[in-house]
Structure formats: structure tokens, C-alpha cells
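Researcher: Going back to the complex we discussed earlier. I've cleaned up the inputs and rechecked each line, so this should be the final set. Can you rerun the prediction on the complete assembly and write out the structure?
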Amino acid sequence: MPEFTHVSEPDIEQVFLQLKSEAEEGGYHLNPDEEFTKNLVRGLLKNEQRYSYRSCPCRLAQGKKDEDLDIICPCDYRDPDLTDFGACYCALYVNDAIAAGEKQAAPVPERRPPRAMRNRQKATRTAAFSPIAPLPFPVWRCKVCGYLCAREQPPDICPICKAKKDRFERFM
Amino acid sequence: MLYALSTCGWCAKTKQLLRDLGVEFDYVYVDLLAGKEQDDTMNIVEKWNPSGSFPVLVINNQKSIVGFREPEIREALRA
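Model: Rerun complete. Updated structure for the full complex:
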């Protein structure tokens, strides 16, 4: 992929402040190391220019949205990594202790299945649903934060974590 | 040899550590490669690190360290 992107400092600052306020609103925190965090924001914006979506700066994107959906930031792995390691894979998002400077963010092992396994999972994935009892509405689950809602279609934007509609899966 | 992504924070820290240690190293930003060159490089990365994550530091074509594991990197390069 040739290097044709340009991300300006004011853009980084603006997106940084926006992500920070959205995070705090939802009970999440950005990494308090501003230089490190803004560098990740630069990576997110660079990926947005390259791929048209904010793919994880610490993972190699395929450049095809349906193959990268799980790593569009915030990724499907952020919340379990926050629970187990106190930080997401990039350490863009951190837990209370790290945000307060009481602990340091450390490298998080990769939770995303490797390339070959992802391809296999894709081949065997089925869309079959057989609820125990018929439901008046389907239930949709946000794969980023776990928010559930019962309605005909998932919302355009998750009201909890702001993930987009395509990050929802049919849950029941 | 350091396999890294141009956008990744831990990759940047690893590269800086190698500079601070004054060791000789080559690096490649795999996200800036295209097509077959990227595929071929990913096959090498996965040989050293089956999860395919970054950064991967390969020391003298013998040993690999996955992630910014500062104590391990310092230890491995001390020899």
C-alpha cells in the first residue's frame, strides 16, 4: 500500500477530544499518555483515509470492510481485553487504574483468531436461527459492547458505545 | 529484523527501544507493502508468530519476540 495519506495535527486534536469525550460518557477511558494516544489517533485517521474506515492501527487490515469489521475501532476485542488486561490491544482504551496513573499499560496478547482460522470460520458460519419460542421481535447484540435491543432492525449507531449498525449480530 | 505496522503504538516503542540500545536492525512496515509482497511478508511473519500480530522482532534469524516486551528484548540483545 503506497503512502499517500496525510493527517493534519488539528484533525488529530479534534478526533482525540471527540473520542475522549465519547469514551468518558460511556464509562471508558483513553490512555492518559497523550503523545502515545494521539499517535494511535493518527493511525486511525490514516487508516480511515486508506480504507475508508477506522481500522485498528495495531493490526494489519485487509482493506475489505467485511473482513475487517471486527477490527474497526472500537474493535470486538476491546471489552474482553479491558477486563482481562486493563487495556485494549493498542492500549488506546484503558481501565480506571491505568487512566488514574496507578498502573502502566502492558502489551496485550492477540485475541483475534489468526488469518487461516478466520477464513475457516467464515466458511462454516451459518445464519440459522431457531429461538426456543417465537419472539415478537428479533434481538440484536452489539458485538463491541454487548448492548441488546429487541426491534425489527438494529439501531444505526449503538447508543452505548457508538459502534455502527453493521457491528450488530442477531442474538435471538 | 523488525516486522511492524506504520500506525501501531507498540511497534513505534519497539523501534525506539532498538534505536536506544544502539543495535543494528532493519525494519519493514507491512501495512505499506501491497499485494504479493505483503502476502509473502505475512507468511514469514506467521512463521515466527502464528497469530500474525505485530510487532515481531526476529533476532539473527534464530529467535523471535512478539510484542513490545522490553525486558525480554533487552535480555535477548545483551548477549
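Model: Worth noting: Chain A has two domains: 9-122, 126-172.
Researcher: Good, that matches what I expected from the previous run.
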